[in-house]
Amino acid sequence: MNYLITGGNRGLGLCLVDIVLKAGHRVFVSIRNVEEKNQELVNLQENYPETLNILHIDVKDEELVKKASAKLAGLHIKLDCIINNAGAIKGRESSITDLIIEDLETIVNVNTFGPMRVVKYFLPLLNKDSGQSSIINISSDAASLSKPFDRDYPYGISKSALNMFTIKLRKELQNEGISVLAVHPGWMRTDMGGSEAAMDPQEAASSIYKLIEKGIVHDIAHILVNHRGEHMDL
Length: 234
Prior knowledge:
Helix content is about 40%, strand content about 15%.
């Protein structure tokens, strides 16, 4: 299988790249700055020179997304899975009166518009004939409308909007043989989650990979699930 994983230079994305490569698949990983590759990603590139391909994509930059898609199209590459993992966080503790609106705009641009740009240009490369292709949007329980977190405006709003995008995309693609799912990976020990988080990102990545590889994503009726595939309320 061919995977596209955005934001694969660290955290959950890097763990997903590692697991998918070790399972014998081909990975196209996008990173924002190819000159600042994580040493672990460099090591993976050395160990898997034939199956790891690095793409220069900043999901905020539509032209870069378009160029990367055109590059794969020119090589007649077909994808089996797109994992929209690239994300950012700002202003988590700000009250509404302290909120910097530019932070909100930045985070929505990355966390919501970013996956939309990626799908816009890479959707034509998905292998519809297999009936097993999927789009996984990495979401969060911070997006919950029924149990919202206090404050956390930029991140929570951006992920709620991402869930709505997931709903609409699934509706549009329901007859195309492509599964669409939003996944909450859990609170992980990453740069974003912090050192106090309960879970190793490798654990979350392993569970998400199993959801995809075993075809579970094609049997799930719900839009949002946790990394184990269990239903979560929007």
